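Memo to structure team: turn this sequence into C-alpha cells by end of day. - J.P.
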Amino acid sequence: MAEGTACNPALACRSHVEHSYLLSSSGCRLDLDAQQAHGPPPVHSADFRRFHRNAPRPAAAACLLRLVVSVELGWFAAALLLVVLGIVGSVVPLMPGLPLVLGGVYLYAFGTGLHGGIGPGHLVLYTLIGGGAIALSTLANMVGVRAASGSRLAMLGATLGLVAGLFLGGPVGLLVGPFVGAVVFELLGGRASRQALRSGVGAAVGLLVGRLAEFAVAIGLSASFVVSVVRA
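Reply from structure team:
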C-alpha cells in the first residue's frame, strides 16, 4: 500500500466507530504525517448516530430463521394430522393405524432433512416397533380364531362387527360387536350354534387384543415423536 494514499490499518482498528468513520470518509485519503502527529480525526455525535443508523442489521438472518421455523411447523402440522388419523385407525378396522403414524413421522423427518428432531435413529427404532406391533396384532387375530377352531368367516364377521359396534354402540359396541359379528357369520357359514359361539369368542378376543396392542403402540410412538420434535 503506497504511503499517503491509504489509511493506516493500525489507526483504523482503534475502535469500530473510528474504523467506520475512516472508511466512509472521501476516498480515505488522509495525510499519514498528519495522522501520526494529531491522531485520528475526532468522532462527532452526528457521525456516531449515522454509523449506527447505517450499520447492518441481522434482518436477513432473522428472516431466514423465521422461514425455517415456518417450514418446520408446516411439516409438523401435516405429520401430526397423519399421526392422529393413525391413532384412530389403530382402533377402527379396515383403516390403517400404525402405517399412518409411521408415515407421518417419515414425512416430517424427510421434510426437515432429518434435522428437525427426528433423525435416522428415530426412524429405525420407530419402524422396528411399529412393524413388530403390526405383526403381533395380525398374529393375535389368527391365534384367537384358530384357538377356537373358527373359520375365516369368523374373522371377517368379528372385523365387521367391530366397525358396526364402534359406530353404533360406542365403547360397549366395541366389545360386543366383534363377538356378535363372528357368531353371525359362522352361523351363516353353516356352523352349529355351539361351535359358532366358540368361534365368536375366539375371534372377538383375538381381534380386541390385537387392536388394543396396536393402539397402545400408536400412542407411545406418537408421544415420543411429539416430545422429540418439541425438544429439538
